[in-house]
Amino acid sequence: MALINTPIKPFKATAFKEGKFVDVTDADVKGKWAIFFFYPADFTFVCPTELEDLAGIYPTLQSLNVEVYSVSTDTHFSHKAWHDTSPAIGKISYYMLGDQSGQITNNFDVMRPGVGLADRATFLVDPEGVIQFMEITSEGVGRNATELLRKVKAAQYVAAHPGEVCPAKWEEGEETLAPSLDLVGKI
Amino acid sequence: MALINTPIKPFKATAFKEGKFVDVTDADVKGKWAIFFFYPADFTFVCPTELEDLAGIYPTLQSLNVEVYSVSTDTHFSHKAWHDTSPAIGKISYYMLGDQSGQITNNFDVMRPGVGLADRATFLVDPEGVIQFMEITSEGVGRNATELLRKVKAAQYVAAHPGEVCPAKWEEGEETLAPSLDLVGKI
Amino acid sequence: MALINTPIKPFKATAFKEGKFVDVTDADVKGKWAIFFFYPADFTFVCPTELEDLAGIYPTLQSLNVEVYSVSTDTHFSHKAWHDTSPAIGKISYYMLGDQSGQITNNFDVMRPGVGLADRATFLVDPEGVIQFMEITSEGVGRNATELLRKVKAAQYVAAHPGEVCPAKWEEGEETLAPSLDLVGKI
Amino acid sequence: MALINTPIKPFKATAFKEGKFVDVTDADVKGKWAIFFFYPADFTFVCPTELEDLAGIYPTLQSLNVEVYSVSTDTHFSHKAWHDTSPAIGKISYYMLGDQSGQITNNFDVMRPGVGLADRATFLVDPEGVIQFMEITSEGVGRNATELLRKVKAAQYVAAHPGEVCPAKWEEGEETLAPSLDLVGKI
Amino acid sequence: MALINTPIKPFKATAFKEGKFVDVTDADVKGKWAIFFFYPADFTFVCPTELEDLAGIYPTLQSLNVEVYSVSTDTHFSHKAWHDTSPAIGKISYYMLGDQSGQITNNFDVMRPGVGLADRATFLVDPEGVIQFMEITSEGVGRNATELLRKVKAAQYVAAHPGEVCPAKWEEGEETLAPSLDLVGKI
Amino acid sequence: MALINTPIKPFKATAFKEGKFVDVTDADVKGKWAIFFFYPADFTFVCPTELEDLAGIYPTLQSLNVEVYSVSTDTHFSHKAWHDTSPAIGKISYYMLGDQSGQITNNFDVMRPGVGLADRATFLVDPEGVIQFMEITSEGVGRNATELLRKVKAAQYVAAHPGEVCPAKWEEGEETLAPSLDLVGKI
Amino acid sequence: MALINTPIKPFKATAFKEGKFVDVTDADVKGKWAIFFFYPADFTFVCPTELEDLAGIYPTLQSLNVEVYSVSTDTHFSHKAWHDTSPAIGKISYYMLGDQSGQITNNFDVMRPGVGLADRATFLVDPEGVIQFMEITSEGVGRNATELLRKVKAAQYVAAHPGEVCPAKWEEGEETLAPSLDLVGKI
Amino acid sequence: MALINTPIKPFKATAFKEGKFVDVTDADVKGKWAIFFFYPADFTFVCPTELEDLAGIYPTLQSLNVEVYSVSTDTHFSHKAWHDTSPAIGKISYYMLGDQSGQITNNFDVMRPGVGLADRATFLVDPEGVIQFMEITSEGVGRNATELLRKVKAAQYVAAHPGEVCPAKWEEGEETLAPSLDLVGKI
Amino acid sequence: MALINTPIKPFKATAFKEGKFVDVTDADVKGKWAIFFFYPADFTFVCPTELEDLAGIYPTLQSLNVEVYSVSTDTHFSHKAWHDTSPAIGKISYYMLGDQSGQITNNFDVMRPGVGLADRATFLVDPEGVIQFMEITSEGVGRNATELLRKVKAAQYVAAHPGEVCPAKWEEGEETLAPSLDLVGKI
Amino acid sequence: MALINTPIKPFKATAFKEGKFVDVTDADVKGKWAIFFFYPADFTFVCPTELEDLAGIYPTLQSLNVEVYSVSTDTHFSHKAWHDTSPAIGKISYYMLGDQSGQITNNFDVMRPGVGLADRATFLVDPEGVIQFMEITSEGVGRNATELLRKVKAAQYVAAHPGEVCPAKWEEGEETLAPSLDLVGKI
């Protein structure tokens, strides 16, 4: 079975965030929406453009009560050094988790076996710690922060409006559907 | 470990496609790109809008050598009946696989335990039968066929151009990146 | 050993009954006589004639304190859609149970292995939840509601008259047998 | 899973038939249609009326290429003694199998656990040795040879006419159904 | 190890005794001496002469506080029918136990494997339920009730006179031996 | 299951016989009828009278092609010493097997657990090495060589006349029974 | 590991001692020094000379608070018979244990596998039941009671004088050694 | 079972012998009689007197084709150092095996558990490598080389004269016994 | 057991060496002496001074046919980035192995459990791939390249001069020891 | 995982120390810093120079609150004898542990498999009993007490000054490093 609709598992790690080293656990994650954004390694190629793309929507996400955690199997020391030296990464102000033990990467089932690096995977976690969305792309295809934002909003809308669902391609402000017996077999 | 970069497993099922019942196996899938589009049940709510959205890009996908298979744990009899009676579903001309035994849904690890229904999951499979992309959303959030098309094109570009990768939000025609030692730590 | 004389096992499912979706459990079944009437799939061929035949005796069965549950591995959504569109099925006012998880079909040991569909099987359950009669036919041979009614009456007669048994072909009102030592070897 | 559509298992037993003791094996059964008619014990009450009822249709069954085997866990010695002394049983000319080892009764999964007696069960086996119909009634309710004959004829009709199925209550000579895609959802 | 000097195991069965069906358990057996007399099947050949032979000494055995139980894997119904029709068996007034489940025959370890019939075996059980004598003959050799009576008397004598033993061929009234150290190596 | 109708198991032992020590194996036993006569210990009480009783019929047994082996868990040295000193044992000219390792006693399943002594058991073995009769008495009751001889003769008669059986108490020269279907239920 | 310095294990046996049969257990052994003297079989060759040799020093051993137990796998009956008939054995007044169950022989680990006879083994046990000396010789070499007596005395001396040890060939009355740090490397 | 009459197990070790370090294996041992003489530790108390005692009979043993191996869990380095510094040990010219790995001590089953030191044990091995004699004394009691020599001679006499055995206390030149049936029970 | 004197295990990794990414396997290591120098993480504190200290003796080590591999669980990308930005690390021209999968760190048994970082460990491997020296220090204590060089020279001297060993604190050019029997116990 | 940073395991042994035999356990070790200094065997070649080298710094170590334990699988008797006879070893006044059972050597994982001798290994244990440093050299390379002293001082400095670490080659009195975020990537 997939991890969708399951709670996140316990973890403990050190993150680099805005010039400091801070400890983060699964308990810290709850109470807010959260995005876990996995990538293979610091100092590599597609990753910085994705992380920079995500940095661009971070203020909007914060205003929507969404925290962001990027994760690789590098250490927090390495994250700081990358942040110090890369113009793209230097724009990041969200949490960069050091997962050199692989605990978080294994928790989310995205460790590449025998390689020691994470897949390019994105997870949306709701304030109860339950996974609401997941996406994994193979090497080489960049992710899209705009589409991610669309889905965050849809998930929040549905959570806030029990009894309604968002149809395909729904954008904030559009109509939703209210499932009922009468609709069965009528759409 | 996730299913990304693993080959699809053997299956055999009957599909409804354009007024006929046809048998489909994993062997039939190979040789072309393929999208497996899982949804919980016929005659329900969000599903038809997603399936209709996907029907809209089916001609484009066919021109890109991509076949489409929708999958639920309903029978092919049920798929035909739905196609006969629903205006949205009536627009579909791709394969609607009847997976009442759950074989395919379990193969892709998206069976909801104890429920007998599939998650809302999308998989892109390359012509060798290897999974290149996967996405799963919880109940209530509709998928987006336009973003799916963007990623199909990126995956095909990378497959055709070894040595290049697509940055975040890459759209067809934009520049790509060619990883090299010199770029390490420079982006 | 066969299921005859064993109690039904716990289950929970959603049924379509007279325009509504209602939850049904094994606890709801007890207290009345009950018929479980399994068939392979909605929207198929022999099945509707059998279900229609059963619908014809449903008022009589109700007057005899017997409830009726048809069961297939389709969803309750599918049952409703079939009820909406088929003239034969539209006559049904008993419970149509959605068993897409296969729980009930497996409970009664009539799942076709590897297929995900139920056998054509009929079970009579007494008010204590104990199976009193079972019948399974292969594909292609229709069942007979009149004979079913005869056996329901015989079972109810025997339950009400301890010490008597019904001989072959017994019809309501005919004489029964009272076993005794003197009869041993004398019939 | 039920025994329906599975082949009979190997057995060897001695039968009483028309004044002689003859050995019967599963191999002897094949090549003809066969009815296995289980009952708890010789010299008991409901059983003789059922066996006599079955004796009444035995000539018709023979003309339809159907052999009949009654089975209890008594010996063939006991069967002969019963046949000698009971007017009802004296009418029987089909095979009365002595199953004191329980092999056949266990093969058909109708041994009452801890009791050493068979259930009241009827099985129809086709000439390939595959079970096509089964019925089990609890103690006290007599079976009906007329309904059994109806189902034998339906099973033979379906076997002889691939592509046709018999609807509910079908009697010899009535119309059958020919399943096709066009009928899906139309009955 | 043999069953000699071990207690009988629990059982429950129905017997035919002097025109009635009565339940018998291992608890009923205790408090008296008991003979268990196993034979293969009702309505067979050597058996009746042995059972008749045993019937001849039954009054004497009763006067010695010994009960008699014949046992076969036939039912009590069959025992009654045999008693009704056979002149030899009609003389029996001891318990005829119906062991169609094989429980007693297996308890005494005399079930013929794969056959479902008991060996021709005799057991003497003392009032505490402990087996004091056993004898088994192959098919075809009849037992001898006179010799059995001799051994019952010897066993009762020894039980009543601790410190004495009966020499070979001892008959009631003859001298016995009293073992003592002085006799060691002197006989 | 009992040892009746099973072949004897392999063994090797040294016997005292007529002033000599000779090795005996299971292979030596075959080709003749054989009696194995177990007793607890040399130099004890009941045993010598039984062994003397058996010595009395040894010439007759030899003329009937029957060999005799007495067995205890004493050594062959002890057997010789007993034979030298006891008037009763001095009459023995059959084989006295030394079974101090317990192999033969365990083979025939008559070792008293935790005691190291054999039960008082008699076995008749046919020339193929198959056990045809067995008898075990508890401590204190002497066996009877005359009855043993009667049963040896009956067993030999039955082996020589297939199709006939000996009724109860049969003595040499008396009539036997020839089982046939007509006799079923008539004795 | 060897049995030296381990406690004797529980046993129960019957001994022949000075014209009587007496029960002996491991509990009876404690409180005195004890010699266990194993030999293969009564009525054999080397054994009597060894047992007679031991009988010669028995008075001395008794005066030293040492009890003697000879052990073979013969019964106490056999021991008595041997004592009655052999001049050498007739001199014995110590305990002759009957170990036909092999319990003691197995306890001391000197059973010859597959043979059922003890090795020629001697054990010295102290008053706490702990083995202080053991010796085993192969078949054919007689033991030496004089040397045994020497070792008994040495063991008793050491037990009585903690801090002293007996050098090689020590005889009663000779000097002993008192180990101390200063002696290390100096002898 | 004891090691008596079993072959020695494979080993490899380095010995100190007459000023040299030489490797010794189980293969080197065979072809001659051998004594293995275990003791706890170099530089201790009783041991040197025993080893010196053994050194005294070494020329005689050599003339009888017997090799001598002393064994402790010390190294060969330690043996040399002890030989260099101790007057008693300096007299030794037989093999002093270094068994610091415990292989030989464990092979002969004389390792003190948890201590890492050997028991005071002596073994006589014949030229085929089979153990003929064993002796173990607890701490504090010295062994006796004279008695050892007596037993070596007895063992060699028996090996050279099949059919004769040495009685108790036998010394070279004395009479032996020739076992025969006539002697059974006569000594 | 420790890894000393055992062969290195198979591995495959990518190293940063003098501006390039090169693959290194265990096969590449053999044929030369090799130092594996583990440290916890790039961009940390004690590590750079140790790595710089090692860089200082790298030319000397190369002239002695010794290759050097530093190892941490960081990627080769991270090593390059560190090399680009740190003055101390920029001096390194030996192999910096990226062991993000932990394979090498686990091979040498120096992974900190649950942490994902290596211990501060040094291993010297000879040209046959056998470990000759190992050293591990806890966090906080820096290693000493000068002492390491001393030991490399000693190991090479011993390898080149069989029969000689280096005493404590041996420096190149000093005398060595040639072990012989005469030296035992004399130093 | 390596033993570094793990607590020492329980042991009990006898040591030779300054002319006495004293018992030492793991409990005695705690409360002080401790060096465990393993070597293969007494009376060998490199070992004495290493032990002598260590003896030279023993007064300094004592003044630093460090106890020293040398360990080999020889006995304490052997240690005393070596101390008595070797000029180099005679200088030792630290604990020489006798580990003939191999318990301590196995505890520290430095037993050579199949050999029974320890590796040349050094361990530094802190007052809590936790291993802070370990070093193992193959046969032939002598250790260096001066470098050992340097590391003892560094370990003690770090233990006394939390927050500081010692760089490579640190000598007493030199500057240390205080790790902080600002230093990351700056050395």
From TrEMBL, chains A, B, C, D, E, F, G, H, I, J:
Localization (cell): Cytoplasm
Keywords: Antioxidant, Cytoplasm, Disulfide bond, Oxidoreductase, Peroxidase, Redox-active center
Recorded catalytic activity of this chain's protein: a hydroperoxide + NADH + H(+) = an alcohol + NAD(+) + H2O
The protein's Enzyme Commission number: 1.11.1.26
Entry GO MF terms: NADH-dependent peroxiredoxin activity
Domain Thioredoxin: 2-157
Annotated function: Thiol-specific peroxidase that catalyzes the reduction of hydrogen peroxide and organic hydroperoxides to water and alcohols, respectively. Plays a role in cell protection against oxidative stress by detoxifying peroxides.
PANTHER family the UniProt entry points to: ALKYL HYDROPEROXIDE REDUCTASE C, THIOREDOXIN PEROXIDASE
Family designation: Belongs to the peroxiredoxin family. AhpC/Prx1 subfamily.
The protein's assembly and partners: Homodimer; disulfide-linked, upon oxidation. 5 homodimers assemble to form a ring-like decamer.
Record protein name field: Alkyl hydroperoxide reductase C
Organism this protein belongs to: Sphingobium tyrosinilyticum
Taxonomy of the source species: Bacteria, Pseudomonadati, Pseudomonadota, Alphaproteobacteria, Sphingomonadales
